Amino acid sequence: MDTLHLSAIYIYPIKSLGGFSVTESSVEERGLKYDRRWMLVDENNKFLTQRSNARLALLQVSISNDSLLVTHKHTHEKIAIPLQPQTSEHLQVQVWDDICEAVVVDSVADTFFSDYMGSRCRLVYMPDSSIRPVDPRYAVTDNYTSFSDAYPFLMIGQASLDDLNGKLEEKLPMNRFRPNLVISGGTPYAEESWREIQIGEAHFYGVKPCARCVVTTTDQQTAKVGKEPLRTLATYRKVGNKILFGQNLVFGRKGSAIRVGDLVSISSVNG
Fold this sequence. Notes:
Blueprint: E1 4-11, E2 20-22, E3 24-28, E4 31-32, E5 38-42, E6 59-64, E7 67-72, E8 78-82, E9 90-95, E10 98-104, H1 107-117, E11 121-125, E12 132-133, E13 144-145, E14 153-157, H2 158-165, E15 181-184, E16 194-199, E17 202-211, H3 230-233, E18 238-239, E19 242-251, E20 256-259, E21 263-269
Parallel strand pairs: 14-15
Antiparallel strand pairs: 1-2, 1-15, 1-21, 3-4, 3-20, 5-11, 6-7, 7-8, 9-10, 10-11, 12-13, 14-19, 16-17, 16-21, 17-19, 18-19
């Protein structure tokens, strides 16, 4: 096997908004530090994503001076949101079929996002007391996650994207797939078979290949929606009615950090 390295780390603080790269990150049970700890919900407290709101892609999130900084990629309109919720209002919010506890962050943020979306929505935060278990069919221990779709971490091999881009007329950037961890080296799609994975100090379990949705067809810079890459992936990456690309992970050991350049080693693979 080729030598494997961690080549990129991405964090998406607010679910379905633009993320950013870092050179290192703390690794927590529910995901990378800050990753998808915030989320927009509608007036029924149900999660909002790019699946039906592609314009969310145009809102870029960064972290600066103990604030979330949300900036529109084209107009550069921005808002700074305190990292700590400014209210004590707790809600039960829905992410897919899960109901979990959240705290309303800030009324000013609610106004900003509601004006942008053209309908009432609220920004909520997942406190440490809110435990959202992963699907028990794929859990290794009592694993839990943040406001991610289903699992704490998503890993993609750079070789997999390179292979896909070799089949596309127009090459796509990695941000179409919104991974947390990008691995260099190895063969295309090999990551979907990895079971026990060591990245620097941190230990992970690969539990389930990632089934991809229409968000991958949204250009993250323009919010325009097309047919690729799902059209091409469906020709060779379809299993049942799912199109697979990437591997979902759960965390194996707490209190660790990862850094770009870390060696990646595989100690076991799925049968």
